[in-house]
Specification:
mainly beta; five-stranded parallel β-sheet; disordered C terminus
């Protein structure tokens, strides 16, 4: 049990703002918040994409899984990304991008780690960066 006044509890996690990169402590069950640094709304949810999804920007502090029949046509900012279907657009991940054997990514990737299975398609450049927060894998 955490001490009174302790900055970290088991019911909280640290996320990085998808807009400014500032670190924010949030409740594990929170769905969205406003960043205290830049005042932008942050989505905290995890997403599973099973169909077509297009937007100007797909940003979440959670994880995204693009299933085998899923297709995302948008720039993506995410904690971790798993691609079993198709992604078209630039990907910025604070954690790991995994492209399975059925996955296709057309666009540049910037992430802390990259895993590409045999049979996967990656059409773009990738840049590996150190994770920006200690909880990128949470």
């Amino acid at each position: 049990m955490p001490r009174s006044g302790s900055p970290r509890t088991e019911n909280e996690k640290t996320v990085a703002c998808t807009q400014c990169g500032g670190h924010v402590r949030v409740a594990r069950r929170a769905m969205s918040i406003f960043c205290p640094h830049c005042r932008q709304r942050l989505i905290l949810e995890d997403f599973k994409i099973k169909t077509y999804h297009a937007s100007r920007l797909f940003a979440t502090c959670g994880d995204i899984v693009v299933e085998k029949n899923g297709f995302v046509s948008a720039p993506i900012r995410v904690a971790n990304l798993t691609v079993r279907g198709r992604v078209q657009g630039k990907v910025e991940a604070r954690g790991v991008v995994k492209i399975s054997g059925t996955g296709q990514v057309r666009g540049d990737i910037e992430a802390a780690g990259l895993v590409v299975d045999g049979g996967a398609t990656l059409d773009g450049f990738f840049r590996i960066n150190a994770p920006t927060i200690e909880s990128a894998g949470e």
